[in-house]
């Protein structure tokens, strides 16, 4: 009941104070975007491109750590790899973590 009129008028106004209080949240989101979200999207795009460009003869490393050679591209989702001489396995393309060496394009006559 003993509030002065000047104090009562400033308590209701929230224009500039609202913007100043929201500024840290906007800054944190911008920092998170540039340090976490954007690089992750770049890595995902590069991985998808790497998987799409797999072909016969490539030496790959699986996400389980196995080093194998691509023998056959089965379809868009699977490849057939040779783990050792005579040991072949089918592998889901998304499980390829790295391509160690790229092969030359296969000629149609071979």
TrEMBL record:
Localization per Swiss-Prot or TrEMBL: Cell membrane
Membrane spanning stretches: none
Q: Which InterPro entries match?
A: Preprotein_translocase_YajC
Record bears the keyword Protein transport: yes
Q: Which domain of life is it from?
A: Bacteria
Q: Which UniProt keywords apply?
A: Cell membrane, Membrane, Protein transport, Translocation, Transmembrane, Transmembrane helix, Transport
Quaternary form?
Part of the SecDF-YidC-YajC translocase complex. The SecDF-YidC-YajC translocase forms a supercomplex with SecYEG, called the holo-translocon (HTL).
What name is this protein filed under?
Sec translocon accessory complex subunit YajC
Question: Which gene does this sequence derive from?
Answer: yajC
């Amino acid at each position: 009941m003993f509030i002065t009129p000047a104090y009562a008028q400033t308590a209701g106004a929230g224009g500039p104070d609202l913007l100043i209080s929201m500024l840290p949240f906007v800054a944190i989101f911008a920092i998170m975007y540039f340090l976490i979200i954007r690089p992750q999207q770049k890595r995902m795009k590069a991985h998808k491109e790497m998987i799409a460009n797999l072909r016969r003869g490539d030496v790959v490393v699986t996400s389980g750590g196995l080093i194998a050679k691509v023998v056959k591209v089965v379809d868009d989702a699977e490849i057939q790899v040779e783990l050792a001489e005579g040991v072949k396995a089918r592998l889901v393309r998304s499980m390829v973590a790295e391509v160690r060496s790229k092969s030359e394009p296969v000629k149609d006559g071979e």
